[in-house]
Amino acid sequence: MLTLAQKQHGFSLVELLIGVVIIGILLSVGLPAFSLWVENTKTRTASETILNGLQLARTEAVRRNANVRFSLTGTAATGAVTWSVGCVTVVGDMNFDGEDDCPAIIQSRSDNEGTNSARAGISTATPMPAFTTVLTSGTDMPAGVTFSGLGRVASAAGVDISRIDITNVDATNNIRPNTRRMVITVGSGGTIRMCDPGVPLATSPQGCA
Questions:
Q1: Which of 68, 143, 162, 178 is least enclosed, having the fewest CB within 10 Å?
Q2: Model's pTM, two decimal places?
Q3: Run of H or E including 144
Q4: Cα atoms in the 13 Å half-sphere on the side-chain side of 184
Q5: Quick one: which of 2, 48, 22 has its CA closest to 166?
């Protein structure tokens, strides 16, 4: 039969200290990787919102048979991922349904939607810079691209956005080490594509050329 002393068994001080040390080591190894994953997720999310905005502008242009513009409205100083989609020529409520037939703002996005460390930089050059060249935060912003009723880019080459780089920056607006960069390209025919310049296109369809 077990005595009271035999039943009462816990951890010794040495065992507790060893456990604390092990937990500390695991946290020191895991936290940086987790933080990097969080920031890369923010970059990916911001990239997808821009992609969705561009696709919306093109879809609305075709649906309304009108020029619709996607505008990155962040400033050169911040490069914030803010955008709006709206008709170039506003058409009022001709159908008397209470809404403009082609409004100035169809949809917009602010920079306080969980991706505040993601930043954009753009290029209007044709041909665009090599994918190894990073378009830093705020480059050539604000700017936009207009789609016609045929779904093509309405403006002349070299005027509208041809490429957007999305990076992740720290408090001093410098790109965080080892974070992911995403690239979105807009072709003159209206094709919109998002790719990862860190992945070769030869090995993955998600890569850039």
A1: 178
A2: 0.81
A3: strand 143-147
A4: 24
A5: 48
pLDDT digits (tens, 9 = 90+) for 133-168: 999 999 999 999 999 999 999 977 678 999 999 999
**What one-letter code names the amino acid at 1?**
M
What are the structure tokens assigned to 58, written together?
């093109």
Alpha helical stretches, state H, the chain: 4-7, 13-64
Q: What domains, with CATH codes, occur in the chain?
A: 34-208 (3.55.40.10)
CA distances 18 to 13, 30, 148, Å, are 9, 18, 67
- List the structure tokens of 81: 């991922």
Give the total residue count for the chain.
Answer: 209
CA dihedral (84, 86, 88, 93) positive or negative: negative
The first and second tokens of residue 173, run together, are 């607006």
DSSP of 83-105, one letter per residue? Answer: EEEEESS-B--SS-SSS-SB-S-
pLDDT tier at 20 (50, 70, 90 boundaries)? Answer: confident
| Distance between CA atoms of residues 30 and 24, nearest Å | 10
CB count in 10 Å sphere of residue 11:
10
Tell me the Cα Rg of the chain.
Answer: 25
Q: In the 8-state DSSP scheme, what is residue 57?
A: H
Residue 175 DSSP symbol: B
Cα separation of 175 and 178, whole Å?
9
Residue 134, class by beta-carbon neighbours within 10 Å (0-12 exposed, 13-18 middle, 19+ buried)? middle
